[in-house]
Specification:
2 domains
């Protein structure tokens, strides 16, 4: 009988529930953002070629994360919906098949690491030192990528049942291990061998594997609502199709970042390599603004999916409204900090005078897009929570490939690099318009059709929250 009890996602006051589920994820995401910055600072101390090699490896690493997280989105949304419907047999099937997909994803990058790493770098540069640095780094990341796929999958199992505190612990532990091991393995501290750039890769995969194993332990020990059955497992094609129906758009959407980054870098290189360096620094810094919102989304998605399955209309509406308000608040704080302290942020990366002169207007202009970004990021996850990942994909493609890259190219033809940065606010306005249009469709076709089962808690007097989107 324990399995069919109402999960807290169906009874806890929405405000308290969203905060309790999102705060751990937001903290862990900020730790992840911190790791990304610290890792780049340490690698830069090896040499500029080493930093360049890591930058060239980014598209492959981003693809790993895209596949892991995108598949996890499908697992999470599907699991939470079936938990709300009390369909426990399907819940267990989704979990088992999700783990199976994580292993298949690892095999893909294992093969890539063993056969295609050298051609991958050779196709991008003729600099032998950069190629060798890149091979040393990316080979390790691919061969031991089981950590990232296992970590994300088992964390999503915890998130889907509302146990986000455990995911904060696993992500935090993984990132902290990474940060601690980076200087030790790169520079050979405390009697360890000096591994250089390979040390950065080894630190990365050790942190990921530690987080994965800890997430496995938490699922076995504390996640009573999901029973993982490794013995006698057979892949279920129907369940896999359902996972990917939601997950594939997310995978594609996240992968688009690699294409966009490549295109923008090429545009900026026509001005100066310093402009491309500024863009790289922005990418590191912007994670501090977006990562907390992504953490908020990770807490929001299972709440919406669960209550959609349970047919608690008012709880869905209130969750969406609160999430949008919090996301906009976070982005406005980030906007204010960047507007006030752009030079201080650039100096974290030992910026030259040229880099500061280009970087200050760049950071201030690009950050104006944050005014609109909070709404759009939350809306994208709302679409995924309702199983409409294609909408998120369309917004992402429209923003990055249809608007951002062409706008950057056209503005670059003016010969003024500062105008190129305006492509970001322009693209974000387009994203906002598309997000509002799709949110109206979700409201009318999904939310409005629900006949609420019974009155919600006193925190849920929000029936008109999305009426403005109607």
């Amino acid at each position: 009988m324990e399995q069919i009890k109402e999960n807290k996602m169906g009874v806890m006051p929405v405000r308290k529930l969203l905060v309790s589920m999102s705060i751990p994820m937001m903290i862990s995401m900020v730790v992840q953002a911190l790791y990304n910055v610290v890792d780049s600072i340490f690698v830069a101390r090896i040499s500029e070629d080493a930093l360049t090699a890591v930058s060239l490896a980014f598209p492959v690493q981003n693809l790993m994360v895209a596949i892991a997280v995108g598949t996890g989105v499908g697992i999470n949304a599907l699991l939470s919906k079936n938990l709300g419907e009390k369909n426990m047999e399907e819940v267990n099937s989704i979990a088992d098949n999700g783990i199976f997909l994580a292993f298949l994803s690892y095999l893909l990058f294992l093969v890539f690491g063993m056969t295609f790493v050298r051609p991958y770098f050779g196709a991008q540069t003729n600099n032998v030192e950069i190629i060798e640095y890149g091979i040393s780094y990316l080979y390790v990341c691919c061969i031991a990528s089981i950590g990232i796929f296992g970590q994300v999958t088992f964390e999503r199992l915890l998130q889907s049942t509302g146990k986000t505190l455990f995911t904060m612990i696993t992500q935090g532990i993984g990132a902290i291990i990474n940060i601690i091991l980076d200087p030790i393995l790169i520079f050979g501290l405390f009697g360890m061998p000096e591994m250089g750039i390979k040390g950065a890769a080894v630190a990365t995969v050790i942190g990921q594997i530690a987080a994965w194993l800890l997430a496995v332990f938490f699922n076995i020990k504390f996640n009573r609502e999901i029973k993982i059955q490794a013995r006698g497992f057979r892949p279920n094609l129907n369940t896999i199709k359902k996972i990917y129906a939601i997950g594939v758009p997310s995978i594609i959407m996240l992968s688009i970042t690699s294409v966009t980054t490549y295109c923008i870098n090429n545009i900026l290189m026509k001005f100066t390599a310093t402009a491309a360096a500024v863009f790289g620094v922005y990418y590191k810094l912007q994670s501090f603004a977006f990562m907390p919102v992504f953490g908020l989304n990770n807490g929001m998605v299972p709440i919406i999916s669960y209550n959609y399955g349970a047919k608690y209309k008012e709880r869905i509406i209130h969750t969406i409204r609160l999430s949008i308000e919090i996301a906009i608040g976070i982005m406005l704080v980030a906007l204010l900090i960047i507007q006030l302290y752009p030079e201080n942020m650039l100096l974290l990366f030992n910026a030259s005078d040229d880099m500061i002169s280009i970087g200050i207007p760049a950071l201030r202009i690009i950050s104006l897009s944050y005014i609109f970004a909070g709404f759009s990021v939350v809306a994208g996850s709302v679409f995924q929570a309702f199983g409409n990942g294609v909408m998120s994909l369309m917004v992402s493609v429209g923003r990055q490939l249809v608007v951002l890259v062409p706008a950057a190219y056209l503005l670059s033809m003016t010969g003024n690099v500062n105008l190129v940065w305006w492509s970001y606010p322009i693209a974000e306005v387009a994203s906002l318009v598309m997000s509002i249009a799709f949110l109206k469709i979700i409201y009318s076709t999904k939310i409005e059709q629900i006949a609420d089962r019974f009155g919600s808690d006193d925190d849920d007097i929000a029936g008109g929250a999305l009426q403005g989107a109607k």
